[in-house]
Amino acid sequence: MNTFLPSAVCRAARNALYIYRAEPNEAAAALLPEAFLNDLLIYPNQTIQAKSETCQALPRKLIKRHKKIMQDLNQAIR
After folding, report:
1. Whether the model pTM is above 0.85
2. First and final CA of the chain: distance in angstroms?
């Protein structure tokens, strides 16, 4: 890696390699090896992303309903 680049950018690139995760920092991503950037486990393509689930904040009403269901199930097994 280029030691003349800001140390935070180099650290971000090293961290991405170490923990095997995508790097959102474009300057750091530019330092990553091509094989890493082409790894579909790290950077899934559009087809894979279309089949994936994402985490979303649920409406308060739904959270309360889920909590009630879980409490009822918990009491039923006691």
Report:
1. no
2. 58
Q: How far is CA 10 from CA 6, 20, 26, 56, 76, in A?
A: 7, 15, 12, 31, 54
Both tokens of residue 58? 């649920």
Cα–Cα distance measured from residue 58 to residue 78, given in angstroms and rounded to the nearest whole number: 29
Question: Mean pLDDT per segment of 10 residues, for the chain of length 78 residues?
Answer: 70 95 94 96 93 86 94 91
Q: How many C-beta atoms surround the C-beta of residue 4 within 10 A?
A: 6
What are the residue ranges spanned by the domains of the chain? 7-76
Contact indicator for 48, 32 with CB cutoff of 8 Å: no
